[in-house]
Amino acid sequence: MNIRTDILLRVYIAFGLIVLLAFAVLFKLFHLQLVEGSKWKAMADSLSTKYVNVEAVRGNIYSVDGSLLATSVPEYELRMDMLAAGIEKDEVFYEKVDSLAEKLSSYFGDKSQRYYSRMLREGRRDKARYMLIKRNVTHQELNVIRTFPVFNLGRYKGGLITIQKNKRILPFRTLAARTIGYKNENVQPVGLEGAYSSYIDGESGRQLMQRIAGGVWMPVNKEVEIAPKDGADIISTIDINMQDVAQNALRKQLIKSDADHGCVVLMEVATGEVRAIANFTKVTEGQYEEKFNYAIAQSAEPGSTFKLASYLSLLEDHKVDTSTRVDCGGGLFKVYNHRNKLVKTVKDSHLGLKVVSVKRAFEESSNAAIAKLIYTHYKNEPERFTDRLRELHLHEKAGLEIPGEGIPYIKTPESKAWYKGLSLAQMAYGYESKMTPLQMLTFYNAIANNGKMVAPKFVREIKRLGKPVEVFEIKVIDEKICSEETLSKLRGMLEGVVEEGSGKTTVKSALYKAAGKTGTAQIADGARGYRGKRSYQASFCGYFPADKPKYAMIVVITNPQGAYYGALVSGPVFREVADKIYSQDVEMYNPVNKVKYVGNTTPPPTKAGSNVAVKKVYRALGVKSYLAANNDIATEIDTNNSVDLKEVKVRPRVVPDVTGMGLKDAMFLLTSSGLRAVVKGSGKVVKQSIVPGVRTVAGYPVMIELQ
How would CATH label the architecture of 649-707? Predict the structure, then answer.
């Protein structure tokens, strides 16, 4: 084969390969277009368009009296389509762009007119279809912005694009903030917001979005394809006025005592509904904030408030009676182990108490007395005592709706940490056990509730569009925790603490009877135990009025400086809260002797306000009253021989007539109308800054003058 033939052969082979490769490429193109075309088209679409969730409006949370505790308000992100139909022509856009820039600059006050003008012109030059104008715009601001040049051309012609987002707000700010809680992405849910998120969240909608230049996603259509479903509303058991009272009293005492932290829980006896729960942590000198829910989550040694359970066991097992005499040994009781070696000397906070009755030992909160009684009567059968504590459900969680409840701990002789003899004596006065403040309150509440133990409750019902979705009934833990005889004796002992014992100087009131128990517990200092730095937990747990209990309450303050006894530190908080609630709750007053008037004597003066309270007072005084309305708020009309009550209507964002009302009712009415009250003076309202009936925006200030 000559050279020429070899070259031609190589050329033919190469040409054949090229033709073959061309056919292969054509075949692959044909296969991609006709066979796999739909697959790749769908993939291309998925890269340029997608469905995104549209957030639903979260449901509201209300207090038991109808006040709004948490709500969602719309906030908007404003963007602009620079090629919208109404401004397609350059002459239309450039004729109005400077006017729009001037309006944006003067309204927001954040950037100059020149800046906004340059931004809008650059967007026009770049043919931006989704240019950011402003974030976090309120609904009221949006209504104003829609009147600006260009934007006032209409929904589609003006190019204004609004992206709605929902912002969660607390109208009462810090009131019950930790109990209301929150639900944020990547954060453990807290409080009612977290516990009932499945109801509150609602159902998200869907909207088709398209990716444009710069990787920005913009809506394909102005309207969402699937509309979101708003969340349900939560009706809590919190009373906003009681919550305010509890928080103020607790904060004041924490500042005075320079304590680390503290909590207050107020519960309705019959139902277990929590009316107020306050938790404060020291952040700086004299400043406290809600950082942690100690009332629900912190399990700690309760101290002397636990003695009530110890005495219940003794009385129920017929080991002692209230009149039984006990030698307190001057306030000292020595505990020996099985080898007759001294392992512990239990001391009273105030030494000197000798032979007294069981009732008196409880009233004086003698550690030596209860340690001696429990040790003496149960040393040969310690499981009888611990079984009794478990029968009281003290080792069980209360089963709260709110997450994060602390785990209680009640030792038994089978426990690894059980110390023969010593554990029995220590447990008698509240050591070597753990309970949360709310768990302790649940036990005391059962004593006040004739032995019926009910679980604490934070939610009364769930509603959607005003209709009940779920109603929460009273949850009974135990119908009767002990006999009537024991109950009667324990209630007498608890009243004795306030009338004659350790709570006499700080808790006793001349207006009503209270019952309860003081508590002081030393806090272990980490690994050093009780040999380290001394710090204490002061508490008071009880109920009022003692003769007909309506509310139970616990106050716990940790590491107060100076005085650290429960009576001196926590007792005043209990008294202040109880005093203010008693003064506001007409159902707890003793019957008023009927007053008779001669002839046409002018009826007694009154303040406008709740018609239920007004009519109750008038009935007690024998004064006739008339009310031809169904509203809860009323005001008085003077007559010669009777009192007419006229209706005061409440409408959202409409200024009500609060003249003649006391501060509490005026504040309630203005707040219910979505307004903010600015107060001057005291007495009853004689003047308001805005005439009744005027419409305003939510949160608008209204000055009220009282004399």
Answer: 2-Layer Sandwich (3.30)
